[in-house]
């Protein structure tokens, strides 16, 4: 069992407790494979032989992921059947603004300050998510990846200076992207361009972290989903990318996308040689974020209101309020992968031109 003791998971199964106080777990328990409610640990079994399983799909011939929040029977007549065990709580919106902010502040900083910094580095983009994580481990080195001139590199430099932190810049190159793409596809089992673009800078950053002697990487994953960091949440219900009629409902939609995203990110970071640490995805933070009303998620053009309020007084104001771009855009990974595709003859007028280029690199 990864992420929690068997006894704790056994109790969580018995009591149907979706947030039993962990940062996620997965593994075999009493003849069943179990995976936590947000899928914070990947877990796979062999199609037709669920007793053969692994945390890495590459160990299996025909892997099938265990769905988040489910248990999969491994033996007997029900072998391969999945039973839903946990569902994400859906509490009513908090009505006491100050109390809700206090819960977020306490949960966030208890989580980031409890991270062991032995062998740890921080993926640091200069946004409030990674800066909050970095604040909890003041002695851990900070790293940012991106092409020179990119938003993330500039933002990380400014934030590191404001926080008096040392920063290592992992400068991306076309050669590095071309080398990394087949390795990422092998780790993921996916050639979807968006997935590849998102993890390219993370993978190359993690490689450098591992080469520098660190074996763990603290990341800010989960903050955008839990605290309303997406433009489509801000624009709900007018954004066609969400079905919800409210900001709060749209944020919950994003939280429910976490299992697929986390599987992608964890597999790639482990393939690069580091174990990810995501303190903002601890159960205590999830529990504090779920009741937040829409006004503590988005206020006009200000997103992640509760997280920024929690960070005020701990981070410099310029960092707590910094805008953040999606990693594939903030690092120029998306732009430059598209450029490489076109240079290789995969023009934009061609359907799925970037995916075709990715597949050509794999071949």
Automatic annotation (TrEMBL):
Q: Biological process GO terms, please?
A: asparagine biosynthetic process
Provide the GO MF annotations for this entry.
asparagine synthase (glutamine-hydrolyzing) activity; ATP binding
The Basic and acidic residues compositionally biased stretches are 8-18
Transmembrane stretches, start-end? none
Gene Ontology cellular-component terms for this entry are: cytosol
Q: Give start and end of each Asparagine synthetase domain.
A: 104-241, 253-348
Q: Where is this region: Disordered?
A: 1-26, 64-94
State the InterPro entries in the record: Asn_synthase (IPR001962), Asn_Synthetase (IPR050795), Rossmann-like_a/b/a_fold (IPR014729)
* Entries under CDD domains matching the protein: Asn_synthase_B_C (cd01991)
Q: Which Pfam families match?
A: Asn_synthase
Entry protein name: Asparagine synthetase B [glutamine-hydrolyzing]
**Originating organism:** Haloferax massiliensis
């Amino acid at each position: 069992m990864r992420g929690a003791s068997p006894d704790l998971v056994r109790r969580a199964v018995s009591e149907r407790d979706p947030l039993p106080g962990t940062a996620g777990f997965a593994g075999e328990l009493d003849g069943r494979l179990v995976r936590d409610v947000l899928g914070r640990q990947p877990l796979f079994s062999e199609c037709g032989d669920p007793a053969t399983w692994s945390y890495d799909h590459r160990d299996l011939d025909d892997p099938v992921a265990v769905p988040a929040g489910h248990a999969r029977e491994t033996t007997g007549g029900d072998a391969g059947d999945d039973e839903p065990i946990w569902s994400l709580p859906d509490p009513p919106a908090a009505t006491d603004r100050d109390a809700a902010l206090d819960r977020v502040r306490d949960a966030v900083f208890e989580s980031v300050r409890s991270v062991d910094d032995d062998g740890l580095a921080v993926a640091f983009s200069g946004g409030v998510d990674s800066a909050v994580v970095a604040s909890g481990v003041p002695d851990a080195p900070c790293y940012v990846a991106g092409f020179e001139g990119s938003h993330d590199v500039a933002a990380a430099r400014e934030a590191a200076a404001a926080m008096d932190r040392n920063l290592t810049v992992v400068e991306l190159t076309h050669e590095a992207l071309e080398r990394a793409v087949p390795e990422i596809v092998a780790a993921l089992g996916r050639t979807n361009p968006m997935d590849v673009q998102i993890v390219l800078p993370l993978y190359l950053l993690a490689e450098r972290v591992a080469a520098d002697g660190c074996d763990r990487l603290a990341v800010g994953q989960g903050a955008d989903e839990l605290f309303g960091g997406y433009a489509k949440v801000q624009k709900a219900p007018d954004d066609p990318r969400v079905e919800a009629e409210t900001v709060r409902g749209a944020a919950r939609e994003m939280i429910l996308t976490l299992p697929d995203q986390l599987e992608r990110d964890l597999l790639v970071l482990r393939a690069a040689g580091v174990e990810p640490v995501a303190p903002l995805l601890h159960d205590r933070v999830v529990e504090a974020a779920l009741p937040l009303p829409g006004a503590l998620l988005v206020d006009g053009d200000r997103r992640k209101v509760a997280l920024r309020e929690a960070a005020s007084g701990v981070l410099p104001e310029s960092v707590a309020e910094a805008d953040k771009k999606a990693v594939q855009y903030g690092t120029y990974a998306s732009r430059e992968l598209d450029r490489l595709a076109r240079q290789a003859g995969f023009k934009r007028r061609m359907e799925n031109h970037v995916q075709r280029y990715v597949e050509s690199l794999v071949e």
